[in-house]
Amino acid sequence: MEANRVYNFNPGPATLPLDVLKEAQAEFLNFANSGMSILEISHRAPEYDAVHQKAKADVKALMGLGDDYEVLFTQGGASQQFAMIPMNYATKEKPGAYVLSGSFAEKAYKEAEHLGVGTIAASSKEEDYKHVPTQSELKIPDYASYLHVCYNNTIYGTEYHYVPETKGVPLFADMSSDMLSRPIDFSKFDFIYAGVQKNLGPAGVVLVVAKKSLLEKSPEELPTMLKYSTFYKKDSLYNTPPAFCIYMVGKTAAWIRAQGGLEEMAKRNKKKADLLYGVIDASEGFYRGHAEKDSRSFMNVTFRLPSEELEKKFVAEAKEKGLSGVKGHRSVGGMRASIYNAMPYEGVVALTDFMEAFRKANK
Amino acid sequence: MEANRVYNFNPGPATLPLDVLKEAQAEFLNFANSGMSILEISHRAPEYDAVHQKAKADVKALMGLGDDYEVLFTQGGASQQFAMIPMNYATKEKPGAYVLSGSFAEKAYKEAEHLGVGTIAASSKEEDYKHVPTQSELKIPDYASYLHVCYNNTIYGTEYHYVPETKGVPLFADMSSDMLSRPIDFSKFDFIYAGVQKNLGPAGVVLVVAKKSLLEKSPEELPTMLKYSTFYKKDSLYNTPPAFCIYMVGKTAAWIRAQGGLEEMAKRNKKKADLLYGVIDASEGFYRGHAEKDSRSFMNVTFRLPSEELEKKFVAEAKEKGLSGVKGHRSVGGMRASIYNAMPYEGVVALTDFMEAFRKANK
């Protein structure tokens, strides 16, 4: 661990690659020899445009997507997309179909329902969201405008390990918490979006990667800033974009490419997750994972301890050891270790070493 | 001028106080001794909450507003507020009344009109937006939900020098380009908003300062993220806020307070504007201001040269001298020097020295 830095297991905003932070820090007062900070430069300046275009290109290259897809930068977090998606794509006759696999999946559905254009295709809510609904559980109406899934469920620590087969219904995915963490056949998706503050950058921008055919036209009655077509037609520059956030996403995407791309991220993320789940599974019931094994997330590892008292003690002692942000979400309780792309293997070693010692001291 | 830095006259994103940038740079890897960057820390962490609350308190203190007002941080730029305001506050029976004083005022009106809930209270469009409509020109229907003004018109270089009297109709103002630049009786306004990327921080957050009575309740049918009440009830933390941008706004507000508050900003801004307009007025017609004298902006100084050829030459030679971003908006042409709070007097001296030399060489 770098001096003064902790291992940051927060679910988002989350740890970022230290090299990326150092690079941004070094050029903070004079970006690209412009004599200005990236915070101060015009979004119409060629120096900024180079950042904007390279970020888009690197994201598309990492995802292996072609000319039929476009990358947009929008705002308002995934939460605003929860409303914009049904506003742009669903109608009463052709509702959006939603798979409920956790809190954010539910929130997305509720926005569509509120507009009267949502329907449920599957839900694991009754099972406390311990698993992601399987292909055979999905009931997708053939008249649906889209099937919406939340690909990784940050709070419950579950993740899809298959790409849903939709029989022609466009596939939409919220990938806020596992975007660019592993290779997926992204071409099977029609519309992907991600609040970037977990795997890709600071809070303040949403990455949208979607088929151009979906972005070209939005319902005329919508306000300008709620039409995806506005972002598409103006290259996300209709108004001033959150330039610094986009710049950081660009730097992170370039870092991922330099490290070896999504294959390398997947390898590292699996190694970290295997270590952590291994310690949980070998703990003789001291640590109990929330997610069912076949739905376990590579990004957010959720587990309980024998008592809430021990859980409090765990959080406090972990913090003293420079292991920050391990407290779980109140709706699940217990612990959650978020081990995104930027979490080094050494961080998970430090956490698991602590877990073993804590178990021995408290069993 | 600091080594490697230019004088940045861009209209937004724009120059920020160098001290603020240096402070952010110094703590970029380890914010508030948390062992994390401000980009990485949870928006639920106490260290972040302190930033959030102090930014709000400093903004309110600078504006001299009391407990009946609340500060919100929203997203999507002023452009998204152009739609959210009529969605939240206007109806067909009680439309929003708009004063057209420039491009952004027009855009705000168009969003209301698009929703069928906008009406025009006054316009100076026919006069090429060379002045801000005066009090006597305002025709405010007594059934209007609000009167909307754009307090400083970045593109045309005009600014209100009076607070409109509305006879009880709530007063709404887009202050994106002159927010916190001078003392105004803000208590006469009911709803003020500003994209912060001109006077207050990096692009990516909108500062809303409004009467609590307006924020408590939003129309039920609106999506969660388009209701101002969501931001109000959750202290702008319903979802992850654009934390870094808020942090920078907080630092800038603290800097303004440390410099002496809005009185001091006004003194400095007037001194800069007087110098610049003085050189224009004394140029024997070589430099021609766009704005009429009684509507001149303290923030954006717009002027033409005798020919477009000379204008191109001016931009190029200015840039060589480290005077960046002086090209005007295409809809007005010519030059625009934006001299926000963070532009030092020395920057305007350098610009006017250059203007005098350029005039002598090219008249």
Short summary of the structure?
The structure is a homodimer of 363-residue chains. Helices cover 36% and strands 15% of the residues of chain A.
Task: Note the main attributes of this structure.
homodimer; 363 residues; alpha/beta; Aspartate Aminotransferase, domain 2; seven-stranded mixed β-sheet; three-stranded antiparallel β-sheet; 10 helices
The pLDDT mean of chain A sits at: 97
Proportion of helical residues of chain A = 25-40%
CATH superfamily of the largest domain in chain A: Type I PLP-dependent aspartate aminotransferase-like (Major domain)
Number of domains of chain A: 2
| Main sheet: strands, sense, barrel of chain A | 7 strands, mixed
Largest interface: A-B, 67 and 67 residues
Unreliable stretches of chain A (pLDDT < 50, length at least 5) are: none
Secondary structure: number of strands of chain A? 14
Describe what you observe in this structure.
The structure is a homodimer of 363-residue chains. Chain A is α/β, with parallel strands linked by helices and 363 residues long. Chain A folds into two domains: 21-259, Aspartate Aminotransferase, domain 2 (3-Layer(aba) Sandwich), CATH 3.40.640; 261-362, Aspartate Aminotransferase, domain 1 (Alpha-Beta Complex), CATH 3.90.1150.10. Chain A is 36% helix and 15% strand. In chain A, the strands form four sheets. In chain A, strands 2-10-9-8-5-3-4 form a seven-stranded mixed β-sheet, sandwiched between helices. In chain A, strands 11-12-14 form a three-stranded antiparallel β-sheet, covered by helices on one side. In chain A, helix 4 links the parallel strand 3 and strand 4 (118-123). In chain A, helix 3 (77-89) packs across helix 4, helix 7 crosses helix 8 and helix 8 (261-281) runs parallel beside helix 10 (345-362). At the A-B interface, helix 1, helix 3 and helix 7 of A face helix 1, helix 3 and helix 7 of B.
